[in-house]
Amino acid sequence: MKIRAAVLEQLAAPLVVQDVELGEPRRGEVLVRVHACGICHTDMYSASGADPSGYAPCVLGHEGAGVVEAVGEGVGSLKPGDRVVTLFSPQCGECVNCRSGKTNICVAIREQQNAGHLPDGTTRLSRDGAPLRHFMGCSTFAEATVMPEIALAKISEEAPFEAACLFACGLSTGLGAAMFRAPVEAGATVVVFGAGMVGLGAVVGARLQRAARVIAVDLSERRLELARHHGATDAWIAGPEIVERVLEETGGFGADFTFEATGNVAVMRQAVEAARMGWGKACMIGVAGKGDTLNMVPRYLITGRQVLGASFGGVKGREQVPQLVDRYLAGDIDVNSFISHRLTLEQVNDGFELMHRQDGIRSVIQLST
Ligand SMILES: [Zn+2]
Ligand SMILES: [Zn+2]
Fold first, then answer.
1. Please, which of 12, 21, 150, 235 could form a disulfide with 92 given CB 3.0 to 4.6 Å?
2. Structural domain of residue 11, as residue ranges?
């Protein structure tokens, strides 16, 4: 079938919205009609050419929500009409990592996904008979996509698409870090560095876990105001004195939990040093640049702090994304306040521009309604 899609023709150039061909779903695959898709830093990072693992041409986008239109042979868990969220981080349930229960990092289709292919090593996207690569196994800057069954989470029929799509990446990453990877304890003191989509997710997660004090740290007053709306009890402008200030306000000990959501390694070091001696957990969820290293003094570990991290917040996508969406439907998460701009597919490059200017938290592309 012919679909409209935003193609990254070459690195460091604007996307070109055009007609491309989408093949039928094969064994273990699902055809999804995309209704809404968030624009994420990872899309922009890959398009910019700065990402060493980026490639072109391909169809970008990985924060999608939509409806199953058709299923390939052997697909048992999804049927036409099901409402789904796309997962760049799949959950096969059968690989050595999934079976361990200890991690959300499924290794079933990693290599093919990184190469821009579906698990069988081919693509369903093409143009003039030439294959066009997928992105993060999703390619949701498009009216429709074909994805592996194990990379789709079936969610409630009641969830609006534009809110649901945010659970495909940044929001779940922050929520998951504070709820699953480093589960915040009731009554705890928490510091969240960075109040973008991921950091705000961690603020919400800390509130849902009933933290007593949630300190949000960011350079932007506007983002800090949003952090307060989502449950931050304190909002501090970022700076070199933050660690000292955390120590001062916690009797010299530090915070029970810190979350780093900026990807800046100097801030990561602050997150380690602001964690409480004895048991503080410092959880890294921001993605650092290639080649960056985290400097820390080993004494921080000897005296009982733990440093950990997570991809996709440690969320096991097929199992836990539907649960997080249910928390939103129950009124626990004000997802709409994260949506700052609504765009058409044709306006995708404007979405990158807004992100570049740090204008708003999330732009959502609205496709078929
Ligand atoms: Zn993302
Ligand atoms: Zn797996």
1. 150
2. 2-168+334-366
pTM: 0.96
322, part of any domain: no
Q: What is the pLDDT of residues 227-258, one digit of tens each?
A: 999 999 999 999 999 999 999 999 999 999 99
CB 38, CB 196: distance < 8 Å: no
pLDDT reading at 369 higher than 60:
no
Q: Which of 106, 138, 165, 283 is catalytic?
A: 106
> Separation of 169 CA from ligand 1 center, angstroms?
5
Going by pLDDT thresholds of 50, 70 and 90, the confidence category of residue 158 is very high
Q: What does the pLDDT look like over 92-140, one tens digit per residue?
A: 999 999 999 999 999 999 999 999 999 999 999 999 999 999 999 999 9
Q: Is residue 245 part of a domain?
A: yes
Residue 319 covered by a domain: no
Indicate if 148 and 8 belong to the same structural domain: yes
> What is the biggest distance separating any 2 CA atoms in the chain, rounded to whole angstroms?
67
Return the CATH number at 155.
3.90.180.10
Rg over alpha carbons for the chain, rounded to the nearest Å, is 20
In a domain, 19, yes or no: yes
For residue 35, indicate whether it is catalytic.
Answer: no
110 a catalytic residue: yes
